[in-house]
């Protein structure tokens, strides 16, 4: 009897022990499936994901990919994402550097001026264009047309012309180095208008034309139509008005026509000139285009221009790599932008169009 009771007790004890042992893994499994509060780790360039800091470490699984084998773990994922971001940043840096290099690359020309045109006169065609048909103010580039009309009239170049109040700038209020009462020849007025971009000289040329300034401006517009500058229009002879407009393509035609006049070629490229503005008083004028004095350019004709509405402008006929070119630059922002653009064009032509010797 005692044996039976002991055996029964033993069986009961073993039964409860087995039940307790079987319950333990279930509790552990329940705990393992419960997700405690987690902290979010955000990786730039990759989607955010929650990582359980308290989860047990597991052996990373390997996932096959086209580029090889990648590690599929939380740490591995962050590492790959970080690596991807690093590569993206490196690629972005490379693109940025390539753009900077592209700006100064003599092979791939880019200019900062609002409009530009480069014409190979030997081939008779444009080799570079940027907004060539955009109509815009042209400032003192106007004086090329002023000079052509004055010369076409066949008026005496040695005729004396006095500067009057009517020749002063009433549009912008700019100052002139030619005082009222100064007496100059028409030849001197032409030289100062082309070389030093003297507005008073250009106004005096228009005023002294038969019929006065209105007839002179009408002749300017007729001349523009004659040479094919259909988008060009003038209202006065100095370029101070923003209503004097043209396009880079039209200015290519105007430069081409101006180059046929020897006086315009010589006077526009004169480095400096001294005139007598009063008895015993002389004044020295300099060319507004520093490239004329640089010694690095072979310039056959040039003209600069500036008013706020037109930006800084420059047109030239120049020989580069033994070939004649016309260069038109309009609406450049900054004092030196047009000069930098001109030098950039020169390097581009020298690199791209200079015949290379074949190495044998």
What labels would you give this structure?
360 residues, alpha+beta, Beta-lactamase, 5-stranded antiparallel sheet, two-stranded antiparallel sheet, 10 helices, globular, disordered N terminus
Please describe what this structure looks like:
With 360 residues, the chain is of the alpha+beta class. The protein has a domain at 115-353: DD-peptidase/beta-lactamase superfamily (Beta-lactamase, 3-Layer(aba) Sandwich), CATH 3.40.710. The protein is built from ten helices and 15 strands. It has a five-stranded antiparallel beta sheet, with helices on both faces. Strands 1-2 form a two-stranded antiparallel sheet. A two-stranded antiparallel ribbon has the order 3-4. Strand 1 and strand 2 form a beta hairpin. The longest helix has 32 residues, at 2-33. The relative contact order is 0.12.
């Amino acid at each position: 009897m005692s044996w039976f009771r002991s055996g029964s007790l033993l069986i009961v004890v073993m039964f409860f022990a087995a039940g307790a042992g079987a319950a333990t893994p279930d509790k552990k499994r329940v705990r393992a499936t419960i997700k405690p509060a987690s902290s979010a780790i955000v990786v730039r360039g990759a989607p955010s994901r929650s990582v359980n800091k308290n989860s047990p470490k597991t052996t990373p699984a390997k996932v096959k990919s086209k580029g090889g084998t990648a590690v599929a773990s939380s740490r591995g994922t962050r590492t790959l994402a970080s690596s991807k971001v690093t590569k993206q940043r490196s690629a972005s840096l490379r693109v940025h550097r390539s753009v900077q290099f592209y700006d100064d690359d003599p092979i791939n020309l880019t200019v900062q001026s609002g409009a530009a045109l480069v014409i190979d006169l030997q081939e008779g065609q444009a080799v570079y264009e940027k907004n060539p048909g955009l109509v815009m103010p042209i400032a003192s580039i106007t004086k090329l047309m002023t000079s052509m009309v004055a010369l076409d009239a066949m008026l005496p170049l040695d005729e004396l012309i006095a500067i009057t109040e009517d020749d002063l700038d009433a549009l912008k209020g700019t100052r002139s180095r030619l005082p009222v009462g100064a007496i100059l020849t028409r030849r001197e007025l032409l030289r100062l208008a082309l070389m030093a971009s003297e507005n008073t000289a250009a106004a005096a040329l228009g005023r002294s034309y038969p019929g006065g300034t209105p007839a002179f401006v009408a002749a300017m517009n007729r001349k523009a139509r004659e040479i094919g500058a259909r988008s060009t229009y003038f209202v006065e002879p100095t370029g101070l008005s923003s209503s004097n407009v043209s396009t880079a393509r039209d200015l290519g035609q105007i430069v081409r026509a101006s180059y046929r006049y020897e006086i315009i070629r010589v006077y526009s490229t004169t480095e400096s000139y001294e005139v007598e503005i009063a008895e015993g008083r002389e004044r020295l004028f300099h060319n507004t285009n520093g490239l004329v004095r640089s010694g690095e350019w072979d310039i056959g004709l040039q003209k600069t221009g500036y008013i706020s509405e037109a930006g800084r402008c420059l047109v030239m006929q120049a020989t580069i790599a033994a070939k004649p070119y016309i260069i038109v630059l309009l609406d450049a922002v900054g004092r030196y932008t047009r000069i930098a653009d001109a030098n950039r064009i020169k390097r581009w032509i020298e690199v791209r169009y200079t015949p290379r010797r074949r190495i044998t």
